[in-house]
Amino acid sequence: MNIPVLTIDGPSGAGKGTVSRAVAKKLGWHYLDSGSIYRSLAIAVLNAGVDLHNIETIVEVAQGMRLDFECGDELTVILNGDDITSRLGAETTGNTASMIAAYPEVRAVLLQKQKDFQRLPGLVADGRDMGTVVFPDAKYKIYLSASATERAKRRYKQLIEKGIGANLDQITRDIEERDRRDRERDTAPLAMAEDALYIDSSDMTIEQVIDKVINLVR
Ligand SMILES: Nc1ncnc2c1ncn2[C@@H]1O[C@H](COP(=O)(O)OP(=O)(O)O)[C@@H](O)[C@H]1O
Ligand SMILES: Nc1ccn([C@@H]2O[C@H](COP(=O)(O)OP(=O)(O)O)[C@@H](O)[C@H]2O)c(=O)n1
């Protein structure tokens, strides 16, 4: 398939979403926020009151989940007819997503849903395993990171700006715990693809990161 894909993988708070959206807009390409698929499943599982160790039922919820993405200025996500956008960014959602994302059976159900986003004229795909598992043949691959302290500060600021109560120490602990879980899981762990370009954004502005990524593609 000759449809170009740019993958941007990395840990929580590195700037993947911000950079991916800006780059997709500049290039006129589609955008896949794969984390929002795992986050939506987390909400579906929490809504259904399923025990997070009950893999079989989580897989059934994933199979039956109907998701619609509406791309305006902000991404709107409709889960089984309900607008869940306001719940997507919560830390509980991200942490639950990271727990259920560790199950290979869950990842297998969500794989094709993600591949289907590859459409002309191109795709920017953001996540943990975009360059390693979902789009291993992608033409352009980035691994975007930043120190855990810097990522926690960014996440804290982002939550406060959204009017969501947050505690910096708790967020730092959550980020470290999520990093560990995402890196150590057996299936599709967070890892840099061998052919990816590594960018550490700790001391870079958002614009500097966007320029670097655009230069890679052009
Ligand atoms: N280079 C940067 N410098 C400062 N803040 C940044 C930078 N990149 C991203 N941010 C901010 O950090 C927060 C998290 O970014 P986001 O794109 O959601 O990260 P990710 O998708 O990797 O979790 C956002 O509020 C964003 O504006
Ligand atoms: N491609 C992906 C994307 C997300 N995820 C999981 O989903 C969680 C939430 O992803 P996200 O990209 O929305 O999280 P943030 O980086 O925005 O904090 C991650 O911690 C991962 O465990 C994944 O396993 N694979």
What is the strand and helix layout of this fold?
Layout: E1 5-9, H1 16-27, E2 30-33, H2 34-47, H3 55-64, E3 67-71, E4 75-79, E5 82-83, H4 85-88, H5 91-100, H6 104-115, E6 123-127, H7 130-134, E7 140-145, H8 148-161, H9 168-184, E8 197-200, H10 206-217
Parallel strand pairs: 1-6, 1-7, 2-6, 7-8
Antiparallel strand pairs: 3-4, 4-5
Bound molecules: adenosine-5'-diphosphate and cytidine-5'-diphosphate.
Order of helices and strands: EHEHHEEEHHHEHEHHEH
Rg, rounded, reads: 16 Å
Under CATH at level 1, the class stands as Alpha Beta
Number of strands: 8
Question: Which residues form runs of ≥5 with pLDDT under 50?
Answer: none
Determine the mean pLDDT: 94
Name of the CATH homologous superfamily: P-loop containing nucleotide triphosphate hydrolases
Fraction of residues in β-strands = 15-25%
Sheet having the most strands: 5 strands, parallel
CATH architecture: 3-Layer(aba) Sandwich
The number of helical segments is 10
Helix content: 40-55%
Strand arrangement within the widest β-sheet reads: 2-6-1-7-8
In this entry the ligands are:
adenosine-5'-diphosphate, cytidine-5'-diphosphate
Distance between the termini: 20 Å
GO molecular function: ATP binding; dCMP kinase activity
Catalytic activity: CMP + ATP = CDP + ADP; dCMP + ATP = dCDP + ADP
Binding site for ATP: 10-18
Domain Cytidylate kinase: 7-217
